[in-house]
């Protein structure tokens, strides 16, 4: 019978757009110990119970595939068990969930979903020498290996987005821009890297305004937008991990205050209604992260464009990857949001291959 193994280093010390990379995160963590002695290893998933249920479901599905590889096809003879902890969507809850996961014997932790809660968790993983991985947190702060040696992620950090957005502004010929960003770690991360690259590109940032994405006295857009209105700039970088309602309101306010172009939002579900607004008011809109093919219809969204390929490219690549792996049949599990509207391209591409 398999025995539960706790982290030996921790034992010695006396004293874890809507996430598409979830299964990959689990596989990466598990492969690190694939060729160890026969045992059962506990990996904790630390997420808010409300917003992280789809992540948990994805991990549960991936667990069977990983265990099949670890116990047979991959040459190993051990397995992994998942232990989910609820963060209640708060920083305090995330820290407690991380501590509970470590205390319960987790050798690695997957989570959380946002930067503000993941940073204190990474400090804990460092102190207790427990590996931590995320597929959604992008703050550059966690990239410092001297500060967070046990943390890693499966996606680029905000620095990539900030640098690209500044270069995009320059190539559009815009010499000045106003920045509106959320006051969380995500917004601050992109704003900081954008500001640095904008300076290198000779772009004048006329004003930087912030708002709270979680409510409170600084949650009102109107003060920030009024400052942008009087800055003399009509190009606005809107930088936030937004909701559909918040993004639509911000888009309307930006247009109402005279913006001639808008950059944002970050995910498909919130960007689609924004694109309808930009179409109605004939205001250009651009994104560097939204990939739904729906927005590629020029007859429906003539004022929308993006700087990256749409989901169709991903669907074609995935189908070709499956064929090159020699797999002749496959099952598909997908979320019901706008991100996966391109999935019909997947079987079509498989047939074409």
Describe the structure.
- With 353 residues, the chain is an alpha/beta fold.
- It has three domains: 4-153, Rossmann fold, CATH 3.40.50.2300; 158-306, 3-Layer(aba) Sandwich (Rossmann fold), CATH 3.40.50.2300; 311-352, no CATH class.
- 43% of the residues lie in helices and 17% in strands.
- It is built from twelve helices and twelve strands.
- The strands form two sheets. Strands 1, 2, 3, 4, 5 and 6 form a six-stranded parallel beta sheet that branches.
- α5 (115-128) links the parallel β4 and β5 (131-134).
- α4 (91-103) packs parallel to α5 (115-128).
- The model is unreliable at 1-21 and 340-353 (pLDDT under 50).
What's the helix and strand layout?
Layout lengths: L3 E2 L2 H6 L8 H10 L8 E8 L5 H21 L5 E8 L4 H13 L4 E4 L3 H14 L2 E4 L16 E3 L4 H14 L4 E7 L2 H16 L3 E8 L9 H9 L5 E5 L4 H13 L4 E3 L4 H14 L2 E4 L16 E3 L4 H14 L20 H8 L1
Main location: membrane
GO molecular function: G protein-coupled receptor activity
Keywords: Glycoprotein, Membrane, Receptor, Signal, Transmembrane, Transmembrane helix
Q: Can I get a quick summary?
A:
By secondary structure, the protein is α/β, with parallel strands linked by helices. The protein has helices at 8-13, 22-31, 53-73, 91-103, 115-128, 158-171, 185-200, 221-229, 244-256, 268-281, 311-324, 345-352, and strands spanning 4-5, 40-47, 79-86, 108-111, 131-134, 151-153, 176-182, 204-211, 235-239, 261-263, 284-287, 304-306. Helix 4 (91-103) packs parallel to helix 5 and helix 6 packs across helix 7.
């Amino acid at each position: 019978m398999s025995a539960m193994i706790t982290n030996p280093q921790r034992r010695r010390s006396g004293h874890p757009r809507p996430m598409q990379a979830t299964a990959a995160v689990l596989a990466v963590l598990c492969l690190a110990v694939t060729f160890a002695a026969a045992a059962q290893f506990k990996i904790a998933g630390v997420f808010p119970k409300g917003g992280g249920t789809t992540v948990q479901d994805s991990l549960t599905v991936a667990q069977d595939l990983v265990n099949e590889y670890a116990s047979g096809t991959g040459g190993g003879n051990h397995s992994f068990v998942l232990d989910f902890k609820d963060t209640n969507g708060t920083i305090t809850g995330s820290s407690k969930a991380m501590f509970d996961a470590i205390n319960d014997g987790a050798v690695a932790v997957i989570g959380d979903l946002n930067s503000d809660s993941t940073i204190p968790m990474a400090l804990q993983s460092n102190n207790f020498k427990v590996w931590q991985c995320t597929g959604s947190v992008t703050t550059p702060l966690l990239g410092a290996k001297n500060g967070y040696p046990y943390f890693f992620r499966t996606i680029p950090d905000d620095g990539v987005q900030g640098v690209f957005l500044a270069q995009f502004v320059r190539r559009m010929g815009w010499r000045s821009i106003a920045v509106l960003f959320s006051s969380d770690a995500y917004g601050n991360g992109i704003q900081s890297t954008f500001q640095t690259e904008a300076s290198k590109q000779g772009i004048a940032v006329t004003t930087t305004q912030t708002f709270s994405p979680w409510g409170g006295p600084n949650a009102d857009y109107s003060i920030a937008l009024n400052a942008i209105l009087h800055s003399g700039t009509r190009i606005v970088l809107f930088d936030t991990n937004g909701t559909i309602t918040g993004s639509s309101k911000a888009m309307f306010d930006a247009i109402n205050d005279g913006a001639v172009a808008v950059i944002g939002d970050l995910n498909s579900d919130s960007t689609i209604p924004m694109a309808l607004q930009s179409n109605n008011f004939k205001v250009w809109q651009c994104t560097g992260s939204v990939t739904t093919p729906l927005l590629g219809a020029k007859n429906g969204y003539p004022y929308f464009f993006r700087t990256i390929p749409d989901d169709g490219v991903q669907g074609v690549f995935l189908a070709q990857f499956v064929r090159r792996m020699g797999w002749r049949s496959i099952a598909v599990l997908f979320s019901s949001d706008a991100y996966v509207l391109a999935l019909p391209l997947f079987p079509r591409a498989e047939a074409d291959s």
